[in-house]
Amino acid sequence: MRSPAGNTREAAGSPSPTAGSALDFDAVYEDQLQFVWRTVRRMGVRGADTDDVVQDVFVIVHRRLAEFEGRAQLKTWVFKILLHVMKHYWRTHQRKPGDRAGENETEIQSLIEDRANGPAASLERVEAVRVLDRLLAALDEDKRAVFVLAEIEQMTAAEIAEIVEANVNTVASRLRAARQEFEKALARFRAHELRRQL
Q1: Are residues 86 and 132 in the same domain?
Q2: Which terminus, N or C, of the chain has the lesser number of Cβ atoms within 10 Å?
Q3: pTM of the model
Q4: Residue 75 in domain
Q5: Crossing angle for the helix pair 25-42 and 118-136, nearest 10 degrees?
Q6: Is 26 part of any domain?
Q7: Contact yes or no for 148/43 (Cβ under 8 A)
Q8: Separation between Cα atoms, residue 80 and residue 76, nearest integer Å
Q9: What CATH number should be reported for the domain holding residue 43?
């Protein structure tokens, strides 16, 4: 499994295969790799495990690709697989200190490529991602999943409900709670940073 650090294609900007067309795994892999890598990191996988988890996702995608019927977007279908892999990861890494992605373990490789804006802009972007990862780590897995899907991947409540296999009301409730917890964590972080500067 190669790292997506050097891959400049963004999944969101690439055309997805449509229903009724023969799906080529290599094309699906190239189209979805950045999305899967980014999301795995944001869902709390520690840096040392990222390649393994991403590989597990694509092994299942490869095995089940013929089952994709185009009833949902390819990205939604892939994320549903990713979420099942993540649930297994969370179960096997439960309550083990240091196994969640920490403040110094982010998806830096996929963000540092933006050299056009200069090193200062890249460093600011990396620091922003560190803060985001730290705040997301404060959420439990269910809330983190709906928050990432809604706020970062911009999916609809209906799409999220299909992925997490819950009704729309449950998704709305989890998202509301996640937003409240995220805002509280952000307020605590800002207060801490302000105290450090005084």
Answers
A1: no
A2: C
A3: 0.64
A4: yes
A5: 70
A6: yes
A7: yes
A8: 6
A9: 1.10.1740.10
Identity of the amino acid at 174 = R
**Residue for token pair 């009833």:** 71
Same domain, 130 and 71: no
Measured in whole angstroms, how far is the alpha carbon of residue 20 from the centre of its chain? Answer: 28
Q: Tell me the pLDDT of the chain (198 aa) as tens digits.
A: 555 544 434 434 444 444 434 578 999 999 999 989 988 888 878 778 889 999 999 999 999 999 898 887 888 899 899 988 988 888 887 644 444 444 344 443 344 444 445 555 555 555 666 777 778 888 888 898 899 889 888 889 998 998 888 999 999 999 999 999 988 888 887 887 777 776
- 55 and 13 together in one domain: yes
Examine the domain organization and report whether 86 and 143 are in the same domain: no
In total, how many domains does the chain have?
Answer: 2
Given 61, 96, 131, the domain boundary residue is: 96
Give the domain extent around 77.
1-96
Residue 48 token pair: 């040392």
Q: How many angstroms separate the CA atoms of 58 and 193, rounded?
A: 39
Asked whether residue 68 falls in the same domain as residue 124, the answer is no
Q: Please give the full DSSP string across 65-131, using - where no structure is assigned.
A: GGG--SSS-HHHHHHHHHHHHHHHHHHHTTT-TT-B--TT-SSHHHHTT--TTHHHHHHHHHHHHHH
Task: Please check whether residues 126 and 72 belong to one and the same domain.
Answer: no
